[in-house]
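Morning run. Coffee first, then this:
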Amino acid sequence: MATIGRSVRLTAAVVRYAVIGATRLRLPIHEVALQIWSLLKVTTLPALLMAVPIGAEVAVQVGGIMNQVGANSLAGAASGLGVVGQGAPMAAGLLMSGAAASAIASDLGARAVREEIDAMRVMGVDPVERLVMPRFLAMIAIAPVLCITIISAGVFAGLAISNHVSGVVPGSFWQSFGAFATPTDLAFSVLKAVVFAGIVVLIASLRGLEAKGGPKGVANAVNASVVLSVFCIFMTNLLISQLQTMFFPAQLA
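And here it is:
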């Protein structure tokens, strides 16, 4: 309960600083841009490497079943429902929890064990405003980019497999993809990625700021941030998917 309380206070502080900075036109744009570039460097290539196997695996597994029932024309629906609906946001979330969360937790944890965080507080500088808020905004900014990148690479990988392995015509693939993958599915996919990004950066920042005990404490903070991020991402994905099913039931476009 104490950890949840600290998380809520950190979330409230980050949101408050972001709103105040935006209304007063005092957001640290340069620092946010640096964090965006830093996070993109550690996530973009892994996102592509994750997206291709996801799209290919969905195409192979579903293509085999569709060949048996003679429904090859619905191969695009598998990519629409699997990659867009669940695969892309989950891959983006797991990627952020692995690469981005570890980078944030290790950076803040190293600052904490070197007592830089305490020194900032003594000088009257809030580390949440100076360190956490720019990383929060940067993560929120790159989340849709990662999600769209994974969707694009995954769907094109599925198209290539369906075309060359299952003999599906590209026009038939795109027709079934467009019929089952609606703009609502894409919107919820991006929404999931943004929510996952906020969860990851808040957990990693909290664990990093509270790191103690030298290098071992930093390692424990990184490990805890990754594990907790993955757990929270799965639970949040379940909740958002259930809400989407309740209020936006699946239907043909």
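The radius of gyration is 21 Å. Good start to the day.
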